Amino acid sequence: MKRFLMLSAMALALTAASEAGAISITQTNSASVLGAALGGVTVTAVSGDANQFGTFTNSSGLWGIGNGVVLSTGDVNHYNDGPNTLVNNSTAYGTSGQADLASLAGNTTYDAALLLFDFVAGDTQFSFDFVFGSEEYPEYVGSQFNDVFGAFFGGVGGTNVTYDQFVNPITINSAWMSSPTGTELDGATVLLSTVVGGLTVGNTYSLMFGIADAGDAYWDSTVYISNFRFTSGQDVGTNPTNQNNPVPEPSTIILLGTGLAGLGYYARKRQKKS
Ligand SMILES: [Ca+2]
Ligand SMILES: [Ca+2]
Ligand SMILES: [Ca+2]
After folding, report:
1. Alpha-carbon span 1 to 70, nearest angstrom
2. What's the whole-model pTM score?
3. What is the largest CA-CA distance in the chain?
4. Nearest 10 degrees: Cα torsion 25, 90, 86, 171
5. Does residue 77 belong to any structural domain of this protein?
6. Distances in Å between the alpha carbon of 268 and those of 142, 173, 252?
7. To 10 degrees, the CA torsion angle through 206, 26, 231, 46?
8. Distance (Å) from CA 73 to ligand 2 centroid
9. Phi, psi at residue 75, to the nearest 5°?
10. Residue 220: phi, psi to the nearest 5?
11. Under 8 Å between Cβ of 38 and 225
12. Which one, of 37, 199, 216, 204, lies nearest residue 115 by Cα?
């Protein structure tokens, strides 16, 4: 058992879904710029094509998420605010996947975008908010194309600490998604918050954010990450309407997380974007 406690993975209400002119992405793989957008953490590695990374602002509060960083298995320039014009928006870089992400996905991964950083604990918990979305939804839910997002405490080889509101890992097959409006994404989670406790104030910790395609390098998935912060007590995220949500027991989270290995997958052919 890891020494820290995973306190909760909870959903926040979807708000302002019809707002326009919201998400504005600036493509960058600059460690210092990405670190600043996460509130001043020390980025130690940025792995992937430069176009897989950026910062974003969200002037109208689309989906309830604040400003932050964006990672994609495609080109982040395609995930600004705007109409959903394609069911299969896709950029294939043909770069490698990542072992921790492949373990979550249960399949070979490709086009991994990895952001690793260190932070000095300012309180006993750290938290962040995110929205994960994909072009794989809904056509390839239940398939081998199980694109994945993870946040690995300890860095490479660390423990995934991020889940949806039903404590499922963030993959196409397991995370709860619906059809949002506002960007090119065909499907997305609601705004989710991850809270990890058990930190010692002043100690340095590592975290890796990673996203990857699974099964092949096509049909993008994208994650928007915001509001990396330190808290104490029970953090309920940025939306006060979430205060009554139950907080799962840490042992329950770990049990359900490892249950993913039991999922079955099947393969089917699909058309690549030309
Ligand atoms: Ca790709
Ligand atoms: Ca689309
Ligand atoms: Ca994909």
Report:
1. 31
2. 0.82
3. 51
4. -80
5. yes
6. 11, 15, 33
7. 0
8. 14
9. -105, 120
10. -70, 150
11. yes
12. 37
143 is in which domain, residue-wise?
5-235+249-261
Q: List, run by run, the mean pLDDT of 10-residue segments along the chain (274 residues).
A: 36 40 92 98 98 96 94 98 95 98 98 98 94 98 98 96 93 96 95 92 97 98 97 60 35 31 33 48
Length of the chain: 274
Q: What residues does the ion ligand 3 have nearby, CB within 5 Å?
A: 147, 213, 219
- Residues 239, 15: contact at Cβ < 8 Å? yes
- Compute the distance from residue 137 Cα to the ligand 1 centre, in Å: 15
H or E, element range at 99: helix 99-105
Written as six digits, the tokens of 256 are 């359900």
Strands (E) in the chain, as ranges, are: 5-11, 23-27, 42-47, 53-58, 68-72, 109-120, 125-134, 148-153, 159-160, 170-171, 187-188, 192-197, 204-214, 221-231
Tokens of 176: 């709860």
pLDDT for res 60 = 85
Overall domain count for the chain? 1
> In this structure, which residues have their CB less than 5 angstroms from ion ligand 1?
73-74, 92, 111, 213, 217
Residue 241 inside a domain? The answer is no
Q: What pLDDT score was predicted for residue 265?
A: 29
**132 occurs within a structural domain:** yes
Using CA atoms, how far apart are residues 152 and 149, in angstroms rounded to an integer? 10
pLDDT of residue 22: 84
Cα-to-centroid distance, 268 and ligand 3 (Å): 14
Tell whether 139 is covered by a domain: yes
